[in-house]
Write a structure and sequence with these properties.
- By secondary structure, the chain is mostly beta strands.
- It is built from three helices and 23 strands.
- The protein folds into two domains: about 160 residues, Sandwich (Jelly Rolls), CATH 2.60.120; about 170 residues, Jelly Rolls (Sandwich).
- A hairpin with a 2-residue loop joins strand 12 and strand 13.
- The structure holds fe (ii) ion.
Length: about 375
């Protein structure tokens, strides 16, 4: 692995510390490598880095409205893919009826985020009740199905290159940002044993992005017990206890929840804002040029964003600086807490935008930073 250049240079007017006590009438922009982990510089600008007045060309900030993706589909494999590359695939799936087939994904782990609804997941490892706000991790090769109690809407992330794991917790210790004791695993309970049957079931196996149908003369979800640490489990965002500082705006990387190869999944959950007069209280402007950034807005008031509602997806490809909308930037002193819940996916490799995503795009999103 190459070593970065070390260039500890200070030029002109600067702040002594990042994100605090900015020189008067300036806007700070962080230029960083390796997400927020590598080398970085802080530049102090006279104008807001998002002050563009025009934008031509396809490489621009994007926003997609999942509410406009109306139809529910019988299986995940029929649901629209929004963004994808060789390392990940992002879908939005509405599952309204009990599945009549079992699913198996040979192409990677699946991470479901339950945006709405509740129900039951049945899989090789047993029965797992799921609800709004759950992440549900399904290891590659697991056979499973869903029985919604109320219509489920799900953000689904496939990790194609490597299984999902946890980030290094470093100084915070192993019980931050959630204690693994809160994870809920599938269980061989009465509901699971009740669905054992000698009736014919089919498994729809997706592998190499091709569908295969495997027929069994019985229900292959017939486990009577298991032991080990590969399983299907759920983590609800309400069990995440975020890290924050009253004097320093922490970077998004402290909200990392899952890690795979070439991308991370972060969760923004309700938290107090910084109290110190000199500390930034909104995300700092940044050029995160080694990553494409995706945010799915789940619930609450997304105070750093104008005109963004729950159920929307924003996509900030690398190559431009971004940050809070002007209204939020100037109103930051009026807020003491945020109740937003959002899922962020940061991808090292460029993501491709599908036709499905483009069909529900807000084409004026690039102009949403303009001051009114
Ligand atoms: Fe960003």
């Amino acid at each position: 692995m190459q070593r970065p250049f070390r260039f500890p240079h200070v030029e002109g007017q600067v702040s002594r510390q990042a994100h605090c006590d900015l020189p008067e009438h300036t806007f700070e922009r962080e230029v960083s490598r390796d997400g927020f982990f590598g080398s970085a510089s802080h530049l102090y600008h006279r104008h807001m880095p998002t002050g563009w007045s025009g934008w031509d060309g396809p490489h621009r900030p994007r926003a997609f409205n999942t509410h406009a993706l109306k139809q529910a589909t019988p299986t995940l494999w029929d649901s629209p893919i929004l963004l994808e590359n060789a390392a990940l695939q992002l879908r939005f799936w509405q599952c309204h009826k009990p599945m009549e087939h079992l699913l198996r994904n040979g192409d990677g782990d699946l991470l479901l985020f339950v945006h709405g609804g509740s129900g039951a997941l049945f899989c090789d490892y047993g029965h797992l009740p799921i609800m709004e706000g759950d992440y549900v991790l399904i290891p590659r090769g697991t056979t499973w199905r869903l029985e919604p109690a109320s219509p489920l809407s799900l953000l689904v992330i496939q990790a194609t290159r490597q299984w999902f794991g946890l980030p290094d917790k470093g100084l915070l210790g192993q019980h931050a940002i959630f204690d693994e004791g809160v994870l809920r695993s599938a269980r061989v309970d009465a509901a699971y044993l009740d669905q054992h049957s000698e009736e014919r079931w089919q498994v729809l196996l997706k592998a190499r992005d091709q569908l295969n149908t495997i027929t069994y003369p019985y229900n292959p979800l017939d486990t009577i017990g298991w032991k080990g640490d590969v399983t299907v489990f759920a983590l609800n965002w309400r069990d995440i206890r975020p890290v924050m500082s009253h004097r320093y705006h922490l970077p998004p990387s402290v909200h990392t929840t899952f890690l795979s190869q070439e991308f991370v999944v972060c969760t923004f959950v309700p938290r107090p804002l910084e109290q110190d007069d000199g500390a930034l209280k909104v995300p700092f402007f940044h050029s995160n040029d080694d990553y494409d950034e995706v945010i799915f807005y789940h619930s609450g008031n997304f105070f750093s964003r104008d005109n963004i509602d729950a159920g929307m997806v924003t996509f900030h490809p690398c190559g431009f600086s971004h940050g809070p909308h002007p209204k939020a930037y100037y109103a930051q002193g009026n807020h003491h807490a945020t109740d937003e819940v959002a899922v962020m996916i940061d991808s090292q490799q460029p993501l491709n935008i599908t036709q499905s995503a483009q069909s529900v795009e807000n084409l004026n999103y690039w102009a949403s930073w303009q001051q009114k």
